[in-house]
Design goal:
The chain is an alpha+beta fold. It contains twelve helices and 15 strands.
Length: 394
């Protein structure tokens, strides 16, 4: 999919810190949390919510009353006359939300849209599904987060099994995964030490679930594991005869991220002295069942082809729930995996699903701005052996 008229303001994107599940954000309601993060981000960018004419709300884990999510969050951010779509596409939610917003702009349906994404793996709901055919009418239960991480009803395996399948087929070794994981940690550490995350992150973030008392102040990501080569080597594989350890995969997290999307004229007004950023393309792909990590490659290739750009000319950010993903992508696309995901990636700072892509897009755009401009490719896999990608021009 190619976009012609969709733009983001320079600096018009943001993210909360990411907190490990059952961490400091565990007590927050995902909608209220996202609204608070968005309010702070819009205020920092001197954006009046009354100037918005559309909203896209992305999430994957239900919270209480999220049925009313889009109009509710619009009211909470001071745009009570605005509403829009609610989207959920597992780990590709952010890219789907951005593409929806871009298509709306191209079609003339809106001029200034806010994309808000949020998820909280902590305290995911335990659901009861009525089943009149069950023994004695007994229903079926589901732990929304854990059960879906653990089993794909189509491929009939867990997410980690999909990565092991790709590792086996592509002969990706445990040693390669550990080495890249260590490199990804060093990239993230360099970003933190250089103040990179401060360029887009809403910090310090005060945790105030009751609206009356601040119970904690979060200065940065919570739950990042200090990583060393020696420590990684000591970890056991998660599966029998496997190659993936706790260290070479991401961890569930809580967070919220967002961005502004609109016409060039409207976004220029929110870009300060810089030029707005153009959204060029969007691509989605699906591969054979049980090989999720492979899907990133065809999704990225579709987005790059639509944009008319070569991957080697892009700042590249990926959602990498497993180190396997980046190793496979690098091999297939002829790119050294060590050359991308500068300053951080979800392998290290965690994965709240809905907002993960939006945060990584923000990081890619800021890296390109630091470089004086250029193209940005974001690509990441999603549940069901699928993936999505976007290309933008700074």
């Amino acid at each position: 999919m190619r976009f012609e008229n969709a733009y983001l303001p320079a600096g018009g994107y943001w993210s909360s810190p990411f907190s490990k599940w059952q961490g400091t954000f565990a007590t927050l309601h995902p909608v209220k949390f996202a609204a608070d993060v968005t309010n702070k981000a819009l205020a920092e960018r001197s954006v009046d919510p009354s100037e918005l004419d559309s909203l896209v709300f992305g999430w994957t884990i239900p919270g209480k009353r999220i049925f009313y999510g889009a109009p509710w969050i619009a009211g909470l951010i001071g745009a009570p006359d605005v509403t829009g779509a609610m989207l959920s596409q597992a780990c590709a939610t952010s890219t789907a939300a951005l593409a929806h917003a871009g298509a709306q702009i191209d079609a003339g349906g809106a001029e200034a849209t806010v994309v808000i994404t949020t998820d909280k793996c902590s305290n995911g709901p335990h659901l009861y599904h009525p089943n009149p055919s069950g023994p004695g009418g007994k229903g079926d239960s589901e732990d929304w987060v854990w059960d879906n991480f653990s089993f794909d009803p189509w491929a009939k395996n867990s997410m980690i099994q999909t990565a092991e399948n790709v590792a086996a087929e592509a002969s990706i070794t445990r040693e390669e995964q550990d080495a890249l994981t260590q490199h990804r940690f060093e990239q993230y550490k360099a970003g933190v030490e250089g103040g990179f995350q401060e360029r887009y992150m809403v910090t310090p973030y005060e945790v105030n679930p009751s609206g009356r008392k601040v119970i904690a102040t979060v200065e940065g990501d919570e739950g990042v594991f200090p990583t060393t080569a020696e420590g990684l080597a000591k970890l056991r594989p998660m599966m029998e005869n496997g190659t993936i350890t706790f260290g070479s995969q991401t961890h569930p997290a809580d967070g919220s991220a967002g961005m502004l999307v609109g016409t060039k004229e409207r976004m220029k007004a929110w870009s300060g002295d810089d030029e707005p950023i153009q959204l060029l393309s969007y691509g989605v792909a699906r591969v054979e069942k049980g090989f999720m990590a492979k899907a990133v490659v065809p999704a990225a290739q579709k987005a790059l082809a639509a944009a008319g750009v070569d991957a080697k000319d892009c700042v590249i950010k990926t959602h990498n729930p497993f180190a396997v993903n980046d190793i496979y992508m690098g091999r297939e696309m002829g790119i050294e995996p060590e050359s991308f995901n500068n300053n951080g990636s979800s392998l290290i700072f965690g994965h709240p699903q809905g907002p993960t892509g939006a945060r990584l897009i923000a990081e890619g755009l800021e890296e390109a701005r630091m470089n004086g401009g250029g193209h940005v490719l974001f690509a990441g896999c999603a549940a069901g052996d699928t993936a999505a990608a976007v290309v933008l021009k700074v």
